[in-house]
Amino acid sequence: MSLYPEFPLDERDLEPTPLPQFERWLRGAEEAAVPEFNAMALATASVDGKPSVRMVLLRGHDDRGFTFFTNYLSRKGGELAVNPFASLLFFWPTFQRQIRIEGTVSAVSPAESDAYFASRPKGHRLGALVSPQSQVIDLATLRQRMQDLQIQYQAADDVPRPEHWGGYRLAPLAIEFWQGRENRLHDRIRYTKTGAGAWTKQRLAP
To answer: Is 205 helix (H, G, I), strand (E, B) or coil?
Structure first.
């Protein structure tokens, strides 16, 4: 039995702008109970062009872009501070689908970061206080810091958001929808931003 769907991805059947099309595919992955359906690879690069990539979770999306949260002092935070261009990749093997998103990244407002931080489980909030993300550390030190904070906040649920932790939003300049096909003749449809709310749509060779 083929892994691939029967009918090709026709650009004429896609939404005129990419966000509704993205939402259609994301919702399909969620409804199919794909594990971590909102997981995405985030690629950044240093000022001299050395790339790095890691998995993060999509925590919001709208006309402004795609939002994720992290430690601003992490490797990705440091790279985004000097090179604010990044790329996202969603891959759902169940459907043989990928979405590639390229654009510029900026920090969300402190109010947005506060609201999301407050919605996280208490243990996750404590973890953000404990971890100097991407820095060298020994396990015993990490565990001791967590234990100390658990004692400190045992009777309180109000864990403050550290200033070094918050959200980023990637504002897309190009979004490509990839649908796997037999014989590696995959469908690739790329939307490219041409102005405020305006996009062009083109087929790329597989």
So the answer is: coil
Give catalytic status of residue 161 as yes or no: no
Smallest CA-to-CA distance from 177 within 62, 4, 24, 74 is with 24
Q: What is the DSSP string of 5-32?
A: -SS---GGGS-SSHHHHHHHHHHHHHHT
Does residue 75 form part of some domain? yes
- Asked whether residue 145 is assigned to any structural domain, the reply reads no
In a domain, 125, yes or no: no
Does residue 158 lie in a domain region?
no
Q: Does this model's pTM top 0.70? A: yes
Per-residue pLDDT tens for 50-61?
999 999 999 999
What is the count of structural domains for the chain? 1
Q: Which member of 27, 184, 190, 203 is catalytic? A: 184
Cα dihedral sign, 96-2-183-187: negative
